[in-house]
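Case study 2.
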Amino acid sequence: MSGAGPPGDEWAARAAELRASVDYHNDRYHRLDDPEIPDAEYDVLVRELRAIEADHPELAVPGSPTGVVGATLSTQFTPVRHRVPMMSLDNAFSAEELEAWAGRLAKQIPPSAALVCELKIDGLALSITYLDGRFERAVTRGDGRTGEDVTANVATIAAIPDRLDSAVGPAPAVLEVRGEVYMPIAAFEELNRRQLDAGEKPFVNPRNSAAGSLRQKDPSVTAHRALSFWAYQIGEWHVEGGPEGWPTTSHEGTLAWLEQAGLPVSPERRVVSGFEEALTFCRHWEARRHDLGYEIDGVVIKVDDLTLQGVLGATARAPRWAIAYKFPPEERTTRLAAIEVSIGRTGKATPFAVLEPVFVGGSTVSLATLHNADQVQAKDVRPGDTVIVRKAGDVIPEVVGPVRGGGGRRGAPWTFPTVCPSCHGPLVRLEGESDTFCTNLDCPGQRVQRIAHFASRSAMDIDGLGEQRVELLVRHRRLADVSDLYRFDAATFDGLEGFAALSVANLLAAIDASRQRPLHRLLIGLGIRHLGQVGSLALARARGTMDAIASAAEVDLAVVDGVGPVIAASVVAWFASEVNRGVVDRLGAAGVSMVEPGAGGGTGGEAAGTGPDHQQRLTGRSVVVTGTLEGYSREAAEEAIRVRGGTSPGSVSGKTWALVVGDAPGASKVRKAEQLGVPIVEGARFDELLERGEIPEAG
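Prediction:
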């Protein structure tokens, strides 16, 4: 830090500016539960201030936010002083920083000392006190020394017991449990649905909604917010009149005791040995953070031995025996350079943001969706704004909204264009809909998107035929509609850049293999409006052949379970087009399969192509897949279940018939299956389950 940055007195000015900014954002986050910037942006400010104070100790001042926990208390709750301060945690943002922390530990404690890895819940820290085993009081962390009394509100949280379970033996005279109040994702989504139905502003994220729900003056409001709680530590205890006599010497033993006492403790934890095992745990959950029903933003790593924790001690704000490994941010701020419009396969015009590139969610993002005209207006984002961008896992990046309070003059509000950027035809917003469409069926933008969709993994799965290649082939007049694909030969690619002999051979082989895809995959690929994967599969099973679907009356399609009148009308209208029927006829002539293996409708009996592997052995059964199965992608495994009559949801419930467990499974799914008594099938026996339609016997 000392080799760059502002010289002389400018260091002091920058430090003062950062302190004011950090204090401001601290207050919005901790007291008001209404942050203006993402956590990652706040972390950047704190890290810069810390670096200045470390390189220039003379600039460190008493009360700097780098040494403060939490923020100023709300005036609507009674303040309560913590008998044992509730400290914060130091953060590691990379493997190198985590290794440096482990190196510091090794100078004071044995290198073989066990560590406990726990998920870092994105919620609100809470202290709960039990007297002689009875729930007595609940207090927020506040500024670390004094918190807010939220006892009445916490008493409404079902996960927190009124009494400790007697299974642990005589209850301590005083037991202070610390943990995190959080809002499950499903509860957050339901809360926002209610907010929108009531015409109110939705909450930004589960963490803020949890904090806001806990700080309600009326406890009945909290009771309707479906909050939950994970315990992660003991703050204070007194056994038989004194602080000695705690029944375990380890942190993991403490968590096990709390669990036995009836308090909820996260099952996703592990005792490890050394830095490498801890880093493996961190990377495992960084890749699977969205497999959970609640939000996490990292992993907390703690020294397991309580005596060694005492040896290591703490700084003014954080224990030395613990650290938080923070995952790459899923929200960052950047400048919105422009708003443009893309044309999809159905002619739908979708606005998207052109951004100054920003690293978020594990990758650099320069484009993000804005959904539709109403969303742009509701979010009030304008070219030139500093905006919050969110990218969670494989989800398409989106602009959350502008950063408020930035000051300065904003640009004019953006208006939706009236002319298609691809064909220059009119853009029309249909009555009663939020979407805008290009009505020119010959629009080249639509053509490229239709063909790319046809080749996508969920449709005909033609590997090597992505959007860029489709655009090149369309531009050079080698490809006009999807039926042209099946007339391709090596000469088709002559003179085109990027098509070497091997890649051409692979692409032709992939096109040829796609001829054997089942009917429902072809229906998906045709891109009929409103007809998605579920409806395509339902129609294919019910009617059996393409002819039976194309010739059916609207009323006959509407009665198919999973279809309904809107989809039925769209399908009939699509097949009424001579252009569309011509494409289907050419596909059939090229040898593309027009039947659904194993279907029983449409032909008076089983459809052509029915074989023993596709009989409906899983009808009415819900089979969940977790982990990697040899020989199957996740999509292929779920499709194998569906074509046999089953369903394959993403989560385990009481209705689940079986859980198939492959390599590196989601631990929470396995644990829930065990709790509910759902049969667990090894991934190696998945084929046996498909073939027999029965749970394979153990062994």
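The CA atoms of residues 284 and 664 lie 9 Å apart.
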